[in-house]
Amino acid sequence: MLLEYVADRDVACPSCTYNLRGLTTSRCPECGRELKLSVGLAQTYLRAWVLLLFAVFCGAGAGLLLGVNFLMVPWSRLAPRQEAVVIYFMAYLPLAMIVMIGCPRFLRWPRRRQWIVAVLASGTILGAYTLFWFSFR
Questions:
Q1: Cα–Cα distances in Å, from 116 out to 32, 43, 54, 133?
Q2: Does the predicted model carry a pTM greater than 0.85?
Q3: 3-state secondary structure of 65
């Protein structure tokens, strides 16, 4: 069915974007990867993804603001707990990049795992904001 489908259509290889029109085998002639014809969802389930993004970017935003703020304030004026909170929020900056890059993989996970990761990320960010609130009062 794959060969019939790509016989008269311009379809790009999902790996290397080589045009597969007129394909004669089930492997891409450019990259050599095996191909399969499959059915996918018309609309991707994004609720857990949006919750995860919200949590991670709340942490990354706070990390950016605190990092810039504490470039102006000497670290010696911070208590150890306050330093830990600032470093914790700054760790969300690279984590946000990792989450963005990992979007396609995350969306292939089962919904239950997606929700577990999203809720855990939300819980950790709520805990971090609570710790921030009590350490800077």
A1: 36, 21, 15, 26
A2: no
A3: helix
